[in-house]
Specification:
mainly alpha, elongated
Length: about 170
Amino acid sequence: MADEFSAPEGERSRPASASPTTELKDKISDDIRSTKELVKETSATGLEKAKEAVSEQAHFAARQMSGVAMALEKVGAELERSDQRHVGRYARQLGRSVASAARRVEGKNLDEMAVLAEDFGRRQPIAFLGIAALAGLTASRFLTASAKRADKARTHATPAQAFASESKDDQNG
């Protein structure tokens, strides 16, 4: 049995207060709000993943720093046994400082490591500059080696590979 007070299904009208423009504005506002929430969630997830990746690299760097520290201490010991005691003592002290910094960095997250690096830079500016220079040199060597490998890979393509590549370009172009 149909309700006597309601209009037939095909003849139902919108409430007087809801115009098509108002409905569209409400829909757009809802879409913008949900998009903002999605962007916040995605950026938070991306930031967290980036922090994790940087933390992993920092832990790797801490292990590398420990190796550099041991090398500095060995060089310092050798120099102390020779006629360069002052330089040897300084090298060993630098090695101990680097080893201490490496121990403090291990197991920390990105924010904590930034605070530690800043603190270390204030307390041991020469060691900090030495580490920064070593890191810069290592990064430049890595980038240079990577670029050379990519160039070699492109120049050592076989003639058959080059012909196949040109044939595909001709078909697509």
